[in-house]
Amino acid sequence: MKFASTTLVFVVSALLALGLVMLYSATMFHRGGPFWGSQVLWCCIGLVVCFGMAMVDYQVLKKVSVLALVLALLLLLAVMIPGIGLERNGAHRWLQLPGTTFQPSEFAKLAVIVALAHYCERKGRGMDTFRYGLLIPGMVLALFLGLIFIEPDWGATALLATVCGLMLFLAGTKLRFMVPPVIVLGAAGGFLLSQNTLRLNRIMSWLDPEGTKQGVGYQAWQSLIALGSGGTTGLGLGNGRQKLGFVPENQTDFIFSVIGEELGLVATMGIVVAFVLFVVCGAYIAMRSRDFFGFLLASGMTLLISLQGFINIGVVTSTLPNKGLPLPFISRGGTNLVVMLFCVGVLLSVARFASREGQVKTAGANDPGGYSPFRAKT
What distance in Å separates the CA atoms of residue 77 and residue 132, rounded to the nearest whole number? Predict the structure, then answer.
């Protein structure tokens, strides 16, 4: 467990350091100072949150899960109120705070994952029934996913729905209950996509990037040029050209392209390996947790960060259509950075108290200690 925790800390630290360096490089020619200084401040806040959560027993999250869920609901409703919610490019996703903005959907992700983990632990073997395994949690999830969807934030909706669906599966919800709703939601999503010109055009540009490179596919095409021009070792830190106004949002959703151009394939593959290591460490911590709540909590946090990372990389490399999700620990964005570091703190807390539990176990030497979801279901 100690090795997994140490590796996790090393991976996150490396990604944070790379993110600060590349953010400075991406914004050095156009008002980079405020962006970089703000990111450093949010990074410090996130590290304090991470350390604090790592020192606290994750069981305390059970006591605040309902309160956090209600608060998340109120915040999601608040962004829809004129004068309170902040509108950008036709989307209501932010609340204006003194000197900064706050994105309630990021907090909602945490609240939903914590509350779902707590609910699944309480229901235990009842999760294999339709009522407790799908109907009740599905109704609550539908409310939150619906509010995030109409902001609109389709990427965050799909991400949270996938994470929660996998958590329900791990908790024991039967596949025969989950498949029909997934098919219905997929069909509904396809219909809504066909009625949304902006997002339909994104799909078409993904299918034909070269044919739409002068229009809706401009960002994706310029991103591919940046990645290709970087080659194996890159053009050198600070020497990227596509960041000079060619790749929009190069400091947020598309910062991976700046890394590829300046540091090359070596750095981009290093990031992929880092997220793979994160998944391995998170899965190991979840499997070794002391209880079912810790298992689901660690699984949810690991899935949230890793899926978001792989989706962002897929978008930048045109493997996936544009989703508008930042690259964890690297992209500019204070709310998301603090949320990601909170998730890391939760993982470290699960690992820390699983180790402590193992030290006081009085079972035989052949008992590896920790929680095994497979052993619990036998």
Answer: 27
